[in-house]
Design brief:
Length: about 190
Amino acid sequence: MPRLAKLLRVPTPADRGPGQPWRLGTPVPLTLARQIKAHAPHCRAIFTVYEMKRLGRDAAELTALADHLTDHGLVLEMLAGPLPGMYDPSGPGRLLFAFFAAMAELQRELIVADTMDGLASARARGRVGGRRPRLSPEQAALAQQLYDAREKTVQQIADLFGVPRSTVYGHLDKTKAVPRQPKKTTITKP
């Protein structure tokens, strides 16, 4: 979207970026193209995108967009990709648009499959990703021991290791293998 905004100087939503889903409702550039077409019905209104993959992530989304473009008499223009140019998503251009939609969905599925394969391969090599734990295994074991024995509060354990309370909670036994028992207090009569 930033490249398209620079090239065309058209308003694009600030919250729209790579990998983010469309918000509910019609996207701002498409609404603008519709308004232009409504005010000048004799002119050809062109909806321009940088690449086909920027339009949607699957065939259903792209087919719905093609219907929307056809209903409002808009023409699609792609600036880059395998076949840059202008396409009318009605009539003969509909077949080409359906082909583009199928290719976009296939490409998306291949990217997801490759990502999952890469993550599985990394896991097999012992690489789990994410941040490194703030506490070493020995520190986590000591924190668990102090917590289970009720010798110190979570805040005191956090202060001992110089970490926030949330970090200590993150390292405590999540399986509840050793449930924490309340201290037994006896009430004595005065």
